[in-house]
Amino acid sequence: MLSVNTNSGALTALQYLNSTNSQMQTTENAVSSGLKVSSAKDNGAVYAIAQNMRGNVAAYSSVTDSLNRGISVVDTATSAAQSISDLLIQMKANALSASDTSLDSTSRASLASDFQALSDQITTIVKNATFNGVNLVDGTHTAGISALASASDQSQTISVADQDLTVSTLAVGTAYSTATTAATMVATVSAAITTVNTALSALSSGSKKFSIQADFVSKLSDTLTTGIGNLVDADMSKESALLTSLQTKQQLGIQALSIANSAPSTILSLFR
Q1: Do the Cβ atoms of 136 and 150 come closer than 8 Å?
Q2: Global pTM value
Q3: Do 74 and 98 fall within a single domain?
Q4: Same domain, 29 and 92
Q5: Which parts of the chain sit beneath pLDDT 70?
Q6: Amino acid 11: pLDDT
Q7: What is the predicted pLDDT for the residue at 271?
Q8: Which of 8, 94, 151, 228 is deepest in the core (most CB within 10 A)?
Q9: What's the pLDDT at 174?
Q10: Are 231 and 102 in contact (CB under 8 A)?
Q11: Range(s) of the domain holding residue 144
């Protein structure tokens, strides 16, 4: 039926053209943003899942920061312990030389002075072995250091105990004065070396625990990020092909609408 009031062909063509334009807008948004789900209106369920996963990734970033701070604190203490161990080895050799009864008093006094200088150096190292306000070797931070291990359970932590490596604890703060006290100091320094090396082993193991957990958290965060991408990222090759197809459909739709709109004008030929 030909009618000047209702053009069903034009209405149908317009519906298809509007549908194509809507699809084109969606595709253009995906191409420009790189996301097939950039907001809740694109896909509410997928967007909600992605947002939850993004929250987890952000939480794991905080866990990583906590672990890295812990690593830095423990590594600082480990470096201090290594230096103290080296100094104690020198002090043992020094005291052993001074324990020689054939040594004259002047030479022994000179050795004692060097021993005291090495002891003072240990004190300096201990005082400066601080990172982020935490010192694990001066005997003041008795709680040790703890770091977050999980983003979902804040009670899960990794801890490393403190180690008191002060000269007073090691009993090497005062130099010897005689061959006898020097001999006694040899045994004292030997015991101190054992103590420091034990502490060094504990600190090294603690640093390794932090590093292993940090690596795991990093990999887990990367896995979650990849999962988010699988949910919301657009397949650019697919979107490109779809955009080309829709552009063609749009042009054909415009042409079809033009043809449909011109149909009523044929009615005039009936009255000629």
Answers
A1: no
A2: 0.76
A3: yes
A4: no
A5: 1-2, 4, 272
A6: 83
A7: 73
A8: 94
A9: 93
A10: no
A11: 44-232
